[in-house]
Structure formats: C-alpha cells, structure tokens
Amino acid sequence: MNRPPPSLSVRAERWPIAGSFAISRGAKTEAIVLVAELYDGTFCGRGECVPYARYGETVPSVMEAMARMAAEISRGLNREGLQNAMPPGAARNALDCAFWDLAAKRAGQPVHELLGESAPKPLTTAYTISLGTPETMGEAAAKAAQRRLLKVKLGTPGDPARIAAVRAAARQCELIVDANEGWTPEDLEENFSACALAGVTLIEQPLPAARDEVLKDTPRLIPVCADESVHARASLAALAGKYDAVNIKLDKAGGLTEALAMASEAESLGFAVMVGCMVATSLSMAPAMLLAQRARFVDLDGALLLARDRPDAMRYEGSCILPASERLWGWEQPPR
C-alpha cells in the first residue's frame, strides 16, 4: 500500500537524572533529549537523540538540522536517502530511528524482522559508576556490587586510588574503565598498571583523540577501546594498531542504519564491538538493543541513570536489559 510521505515534528524534553552524572569533562543533573516524530496520517514513527557537546552539537543546532529536513521528507526523502542527505550525528540518528519505527508500524512487523534478524535476546549491560572521590565511588560500587558489569568513570589525577576503591567494594564484578580522554601520555603507564592490578577487562578512550597515536607504541595487558576517536565507518581504518575495540553509539554514527553497517566493518577489521549510549530515555536504548546483539560489551544503562523513564520503558532486571516492548519503539501500534 502506498502511503503519503510523513510530516516531521521535533521537540526537546528534559529528564532529571537520579543524583548527578559525572565524567572527566563535567557533571550534569538532567538529560536533554530531542524526539523526532514522523506521522503519515495513520502511524507515527519516533526516534530520540542526545546532542553531543564533545563534537560541537547543541540542542538548538541539532533541532535546526532536523527541522531543515522537514521539507525534503514531505517531498519523499526516505531512510535510504537520509544517509547521504545528512552527516553522521545526533540529528540523523533521531530521524533514522524514526524511519525504522514508522516502517515497522506500517509493515506490522518488528524492526528485527525487517532486518532479517532473529528476535533480540536479553543482555547483560554495564552500570556506570560516576567520577568522584575514591570514597564516593567506593560507596557507589558497594551499592551496585550485585551487578555483573560496572563501567567506572575515570580521567582525572588520582585515578589509581579510585579504581582500587571500586575493586575493593565490588570484588565479584567485571570492571571496565572509561577515562573520557582524561589521561595523558605521562600518566598512562601508572593508570594502566592500576587497572591491571584491579582486574579491569577493558579501558575506553584513555587519551584525547588528537593524541591517541601514542597508543601504537604503548605496551598494555588490557584491551583498549575507542570512543571519542571513532564516529562512523570512515573513521575506522585510522584506528588500526591503536585500539582493540570500538564503542559504537547511535548518536555518533548517525542512526541504526549506519551503526549496523559500521559494526560489520569493524568486525572485518578485527575490532571487538562495544555498544554505548548517552544518558537518555528508553526510546534511545530500544534501537541500540538490536545492535547490541552482536557486541562483546553492552553499555545501555542510560535510562537506568534517570530519576524516571518513559511509559512502556525498557525493563532492567538487575544487570539484564530486556528487549523493548512494541509500545515503545519498533513495531505496530494502533492508529492514533
């Protein structure tokens, strides 16, 4: 059945964080997300994104970038055309995921079937321990010690004491570390040694992206994962020899379409795949859950860090994240 091109609407939403979320670049107490809706008169497809300040994105700039596409979409621009019409980034992510959601509702099939994939399975997700003093991070780790995987935010002087405090408080947990570009070539050896002593499994983005060439000549016992150094597929080749894994986030890649293609190329280049997220609602986590089925490390706890989430939110059972309900994203819904 041929349907008319959808109309686009975009809005910003504010979601309070439970406490504070702190990394080496700063702290925040709320998540500001942008929601794109594509409505064809019968079905509404939704997608959510978080502007990425690290790459110069702001809420106004991303809203404007999406709004500029409204006329093109009304003239028939589809998901495939979107990939060339917009660069990778948060704006394209929200629109790409909205197109997938709309297509699933029009077809009456979940997105995984449209992709020719099996139904997604529950997965173990990391739970983030925000950056703080060794004492506060140890207390947070003790409260989360029943979880299987903790992601520890580091990236400022004194990190060896922080990771030691977390390990002492959570002796049974698998630990991964995210320095968010906060280390330097001078303190790299000390921090790597502290992480090895704590039994850390993976270290994310230890150095600034502009200085990560140093990693080619740095001995290490722990695999290193690119985050800020990796964007869409075009960035992968330059990471060879520096990183062992790549963190794919839909907001960086520009949507589920590119993220899936990126994961395939990363695997062909020998990189392990990690799937990450921003602090956002379950509407952001739902499409990333499809990508996470092929990942070695899953970090989709963004909605867990909020004081509240959307209706029909993703369900978390301890460290286990369950696939999205059809009412949230990616399947048929009654006409509105």
Explain what you see:
With 336 residues, this protein is α/β, with parallel strands linked by helices. It folds into two domains: 7-114, Enolase-like, N-terminal domain (Enolase-like, domain 1); 123-321, Enolase-like C-terminal domain (TIM Barrel), CATH 3.20.20. The protein is built from eleven helices and 14 strands. It has helices at residues 59-67, 70-74, 79-85, 90-107, 111-114, 134-143, 159-169, 188-197, 250-253, 256-268, 282-292; strands spanning 7-23, 26-39, 44-49, 123-124, 127-129, 149-153, 174-178, 202-204, 224-226, 245-248, 272-275, 297-298, 316-317, 320-321. Helix 6 runs parallel beside helix 7, helix 7 runs parallel beside helix 8 (188-197) and helix 10 (256-268) packs parallel to helix 11 (282-292). The two termini are 19 Å apart.
Question: What is the H/E string?
Answer: EEEHHHHHEEHEHEHEEEHHEHEEE
**Which class best fits the helix and strand makeup?**
alpha/beta
CATH-derived architecture of the largest domain: Alpha-Beta Barrel
| β-strand number | 14
CATH class (first level) name of the largest domain = Alpha Beta
Mean pLDDT: 94
**What sort of overall outline do the alpha carbons produce when their principal axes are compared?**
globular
Amino-to-carboxy terminus distance: 19 Å
Bin the strand percentage.
Answer: 15-25%
Largest sheet: 8 strands, parallel
Rg: 20 Å
Find the CATH topology of the largest domain.
Answer: TIM Barrel
Sheet with most strands: strand arrangement: 5-6-7-8-9-10-11-12
Unreliable runs: none
Number of helices: 11
* Structural domain count: 2
Quaternary structure classification: single chain
The name of the CATH superfamily of the largest domain reads Enolase-like C-terminal domain
Helix content: 25-40%
